[in-house]
C-alpha cells in the first residue's frame, strides 16, 4: 500500500518541495527512511511510532519504507514527523490520501502525539503557495507566521488525533484567520527611552546620522569614551524609514529559518538592530556551521549592524564582511551545496582614537606612536574604503550637558528622512533599489551629476586626499542624499563640501 504526503524542506532561507512516500509491504517488520535523511530525520522513526500508538491508532506490523523525494538532497530537522505519521496512517486506510492531494504538511511530533512548532514555516508555505498549493496543515504555534501568506488556507494542528479527525470528516479544523489591523505594518521603536533629544551636543554627528539614515550609508563614529557614540548608534533605528510589507516578509523569512521569531509576533515590523560582541567569530558574523544558518549580517538585513569597539573585533571576522557590504548577500559553500543569504545591511561602527581612548589629552593619554599605529591598522584599508561617513566626536562640553533647551527629537529628524526616502523611491521606481547608498556606477553617473565648477572642487579633493574610485562614488552618493534632504534636484557646492568633510578622517587616524 503506497501513500504520498506533500511537505517541504529548507535550503538556506529558500524552500523546496519534498514528497513523503510511504509504502507498507509484507515481510519482516522494519521501519526504514531513505532519501538522504540526517540524524534528526532518522530518529523520527521512534517519535512517529510512539506518537501513533499513544494516539490510540494501530501501528502496522509490516515492512515500512519511507522515501523523502527528491532522494539526492540532504534532509534535515524534525519537520517531517507529522507527514511521515500521516503517510503511515493513510497507508493503513485510517483516512484517504486523496484529501491531502492539494495540501502541504509539516510539524514535529511529541511522544504523546501532540505537534510541536518548527523553524522556517514562512518560506515553506510561501514557496508552496507559488507552486499552486492552497492548503497547509502546520503546528498551531506556527499559525500566525503561516497566515502571512495571503490566499493560503492555514489549518492549525495540535495533535495527530485532531488532524486525522479532520481528514476523516469526524471533526473539522477551522482555518486560522489573522486579523490585519490598521497599524499592522507600523513598527514600534522604543522612542521613550531611545530618542535623539537625549543626546547632548554632537550636532555634527547627529547630522551625519541623519544623512546615513536617509540614504542607507555606512558610518563610523570616532571619539573618546563618553562622547556619545553608542548612544547615537542605538538611537539610529528611531529615525529610519518604516519597512515596506515586502521588506518585512523578507526579514521574517530569515528570522523564521534562524528560529528567532517572537511568539505571537510573527511579522518583523521594525528594521533589525544587531549589536554583536567583539568576540564574535567570523562564521557567527556571516553565517555557517555544519547546517548553515544566517549570521549577524543576515539578521541585520534591511536594518543596522552595530559594531562597537571596531578594532577589537577579530581581523578575519571584519574582512569577511567586505564582499557582503558590496553585494548585499553572503554565499556560504559547503560540501553538500552552496547557500546564499541576503545581507543588505547598514554598517554602523564606533571606535576610540587610540587604545586608551584619550588621544590628544596629554594628561590622560600615554599611548606610544607605535601602539596607536598598531591599533589603527587593525582596520584594513579595503574595509575602511567601504564606509561612507567617518565622524569625529569630541568630548561633550559641560555647557552642553547643563543646557536644558530640548534638542531635536527623533520624530522630527525622521520626518526629513522619510521625505528624502520618498524622493529616492520615486527616483528608483524601475531600478530595483530603494536608497542612494545602493546605487551602482551606472546609476551614480545618471543621478549624481555635478556642475562644472563643482567637478573641479571634487577633482581637487580627489587628488589631495588620494581617494579611491570607491570613495569617489561614495562622495557622490552622499552628496545626492544631502541634496534629497534639502529637497533639491541638483547637487550643489554646499552639499558636496558638507559630505567631503566625512572623508577626511581616514587620513588623520587610520593611514
Describe the structure.
The protein is α/β, with parallel strands linked by helices and 511 residues long. It has two domains: 167 residues, Ribosomal Protein S5, domain 2; 235 residues, Rossmann fold (3-Layer(aba) Sandwich). 37% of the residues lie in helices and 17% in strands. It has 22 helices and 18 strands. It has a five-stranded parallel beta sheet with strand order 11-14-17-10-18. Strands 1-2-4-3 form a four-stranded mixed beta sheet. Strands 5-8-9 form a three-stranded parallel beta sheet, with helices on both faces. Helix 2 packs across helix 3.
Give me some keywords for this one.
Rossmann fold, five-stranded parallel sheet, 511 residues
- Side by side, the strands of the main sheet go 11-14-17-10-18
Total domain units: 2
Largest sheet composition: 5 strands, parallel
* Gyration radius over CA: 28 Å
* CATH homologous superfamily placement of the largest domain: P-loop containing nucleotide triphosphate hydrolases
Low-confidence stretches: 181-185
CATH topology of the largest domain: Rossmann fold
Structural class: alpha/beta
- CATH level-two architecture of the largest domain: 3-Layer(aba) Sandwich
Helix content range: 25-40%
Annotation field: number of helices: 22
Shape: elongated
Q: Indicate the mean pLDDT.
A: 90
- C-alpha end-to-end distance: 73 Å
CATH class of the largest domain: Alpha Beta
Strand content: 15-25%
What's the total count of β strands? 18
Summed up, what is this model?
The chain has 22 helices and 18 strands.
Amino acid at each position: 500500500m503506497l501513500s504520498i504526503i506533500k511537505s517541504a524542506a529548507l535550503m538556506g532561507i529558500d524552500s523546496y518541495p519534498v514528497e513523503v512516500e510511504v509504502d507498507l509491504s509484507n515481510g519482516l517488520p522494519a521501519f526504514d527512511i531513505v532519501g538522504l535523511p540526517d540524524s534528526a530525520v532518522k530518529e523520527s522513526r521512534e517519535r512517529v511510532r510512539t506518537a501513533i500508538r499513544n494516539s490510540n491508532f494501530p501501528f502496522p506490523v509490516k515492512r515500512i519504507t519511507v522515501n523523502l523525494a527528491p532522494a539526492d538532497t540532504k534532509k534535515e530537522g524534525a519537520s517531517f514527523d507529522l507527514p511521515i505519521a500521516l503517510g503511515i496512517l493513510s497507508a493503513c486506510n485510517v483516512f484517504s490520501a486523496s484529501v491531502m492531494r492539494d495540501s502541504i504538511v509539516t510539524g514535529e511530533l511529541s511522544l504523546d502525539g501532540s505537534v510541536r512548532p518548527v523553524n522556517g514555516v514562512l518560506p515553506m508555505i510561501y514557496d508552496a503557495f507559488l507552486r499552486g498549493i492552497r492548503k497547509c496543515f502546520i503546528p498551531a504555534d506556527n499559525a500566525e507566521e503561516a497566515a502571512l501568506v495571503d490566499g493560503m488556507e492555514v489549518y492549525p494542528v495540535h495533535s495527530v488525533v485532531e488532524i486525522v479527525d479532520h481528514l476523516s470528516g469526524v471533526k473539522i479544523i477551522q482555518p486560522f484567520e489573522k486579523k490585519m489591523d490598521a497599524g499592522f505594518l507600523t513598527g514600534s521603536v522604543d522612542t521613550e527611552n531611545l530618542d535623539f533629544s537625549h543626546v547632548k551636543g554632537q550636532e555634527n554627528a547627529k547630522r551625519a546620522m541623519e544623512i546615513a539614515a536617509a540614504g542607507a550609508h555606512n558610518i563610523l563614529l570616532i571619539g573618546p569614551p563618553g562622547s556619545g557614540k553608542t548612544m547615537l548608534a542605538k538611537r539610529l533605528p528611531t529615525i529610519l524609514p518604516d519597512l515596506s510589507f515586502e521588506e518585512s516578509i523578507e526579514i521574517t523569512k530569515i528570522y523564521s529559518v534562524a528560529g528567532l521569531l517572537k511568539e505571537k509576533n510573527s511579522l518583523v515590523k521594525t528594521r533589525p538592530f544587531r549589536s554583536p560582541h567583539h568576540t564574535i567569530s567570523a562564521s557567527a558574523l556571516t553565517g555557517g556551521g555544519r547546517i548553515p544558518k544566517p549570521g549577524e549580517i543576515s539578521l541585520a538585513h534591511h536594518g543596522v549592524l552595530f559594531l562597537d569597539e571596531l578594532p577589537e573585533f577579530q581581523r578575519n571576522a571584519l574582512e569577511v564582511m567586505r564582499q557582503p557590504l558590496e553585494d548585499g548577500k553572503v554565499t556560504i559553500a559547503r560540501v553538500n551545496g552552496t547557500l546564499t543569504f541576503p545581507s543588505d545591511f547598514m554598517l554602523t561602527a564606533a571606535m576610540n582614537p587610540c587604545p586608551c581612548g584619550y588621544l590628544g589629552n596629554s594628561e590622560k593619554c600615554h599611548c606610544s606612536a607605535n601602539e596607536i599605529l598598531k591599533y589603527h591598522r587593525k582596520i584594513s584599508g579595503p574595509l575602511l574604503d567601504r564606509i561612507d561617513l567617518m565622524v569625529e566626536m569630541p568630548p561633550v562640553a559641560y555647557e552642553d550637558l547643563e543646557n536644558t533647551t530640548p534638542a531635536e527629537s527623533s520624530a522630527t529628524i525622521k520626518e526629513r528622512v522619510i521625505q528624502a526616502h520618498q524622493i529616492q523611491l520615486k527616483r528608483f521606481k524601475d531600478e530595483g533599489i530603494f536608497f542612494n547608498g545602493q546605487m551602482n556606477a551606472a546609476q551614480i553617473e545618471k543621478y549624481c551629476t555635478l556642475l562644472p565648477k563643482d567637478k573641479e572642487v571634487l577633482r581637487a579633493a580627489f587628488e589631495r586626499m588620494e581617494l579611491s574610485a570607491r570613495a569617489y562614488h561614495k562622495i557622490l552618493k552622499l552628496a545626492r542624499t544631502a541634496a534629497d534632504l534639502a529637497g533639491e534636484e541638483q547637487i550643489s557646492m554646499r552639499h558636496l563640501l558638507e559630505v567631503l568633510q566625512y572623508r577626511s578622517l581616514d587620513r588623520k587616524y587610520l593611514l
